[in-house]
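Lab notebook page, bench 4
Experiment: in silico fold of construct C2
Operator: M.H.
Input chain length: 101 residues
Purpose: comparison with the prior construct
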Amino acid sequence: MADMSNLMKQAQAMQGKLQEIQKQIENLNVTGIAGAGSVKIEITGRHKAKKVEIDDSLLTNKPVLEELICAAFDDAVSKIEKASQDHLRLLTSDFSPDKDK
């Protein structure tokens, strides 16, 4: 019975830590960059765009600009995904069976 009680406590602790990590991820701000910095897009952990910077030299080349905007957004999303994975990896390592050894 003590094992079950301990397991429940661990599950509750993990749930609390997961909620904390989710909040940290939501509050992240990352910047995606494309075209050697000529296009930058800042997004939140909820994938909401906050800011876009475009070099003036791109304003006359619409197809390139569109491609770079997509690339910058994809870069930002991949940064959020990596941060999420890193945070979750920390969570699972906190509760791994080998931690107590």
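Observations: The beta strands are 29-34, 39-44, 49-54. The longest strand covers residues 29-34.
Next step: discuss at group meeting.
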